[in-house]
Amino acid sequence: MEALARRCPRIKFLTLGGFQGLCKASWLHLDGVAVCGSLESLCIKSCLDLTDASLAAIGRGCGRLAKFAIHGCDLVTSSGIRRLATALRPTIKEVSILHCRLLDTAACLTALSPIRDRIESLEINCVWKEVEPPESVANGTIGCNHEDDDLDEVSYESASKKCRYMELDDLVSWEMLRSLSLWFPAGFPVLTKMKLDLSEAVGYALTAPAGQMDLSLWERFYLQGIDSLITLYELDYWPPQDKEVNQRSLTLPAVGLLQRCTGLRKLFVHGTTHEHFLSFFSMMPNLRDMQLREDYYPAPENDMMITEMRAESWLRFEMQLNSRRIED
């Protein structure tokens, strides 16, 4: 990295993946990528020995950074993110933090508070749960924020609650924010009932060439992993829609993903589907009540689209569903 800075002193954009020793920050002097002072964009992926001290050194040495991304660096904590944000406050505009083991979404938002009035684009995809408390916390007390804060010391339990909710409530004060992407698990161990409304996800339908449509990408995107909600008992689901052709129906990827929710007993779909897709649902062992509700923007009476369910089609599915052996 130091040779790169010498040979390419005007380099502005740099993406590094799978490297070690990018910035050791062993002494007060700058080393590694921290000497690339002309950088305006830096993305670091899977650097397993990157530490909070490394981020602090990068903040001091790369004073022109407007965009910073860190992915899969498991030694970095919210303290390092905060030190970097504080050092880069005059220039930083975009931040991306993905899959760092010692970080969660709430802690990242708190750590970025020094630049929340300046940041324009923010992406965070970290596990939404409490990370293991540092040794100082385990011994008694902790402050919600780090060394730059003026908060009094409080118990770890109350501090974690403040860290979890305080910055989310204050998102309105991120006045320059133009792009926000926060990823976190939607399910909890005791989740039994869910309303999932994708009726405004028109996406590809409005940009596709004439006569072509594919909303299945949307449903595959939103429903991926729904089978992990093992306690889910009831689902009220509004599929994506295509207003151009007056249609809202389940696609094949959606049917396949919903079928994997083996604990589901009640399924209400506000739309229609192909008749042969219904056979997927008849294989769900615990499904007892399924309804297709045409309560969206009802199709005109002369609409003969193949996705519109007919009474005889539904009766066949109902007989198939009720003919199964019900243990309870």
Automatic annotation (TrEMBL):
GO terms for cellular component: nucleus; SCF ubiquitin ligase complex. Gene3D superfamilies: Ribonuclease Inhibitor (3.80.10.10). GO terms for biological process: bud dilation; regulation of shoot system morphogenesis; SCF-dependent proteasomal ubiquitin-dependent protein catabolic process. InterPro entries: Leu-rich_rpt_Cys-con_subtyp, LRR_dom_sf. This is COI1 F-box domain-containing protein. It comes from Panicum hallii var. hallii.
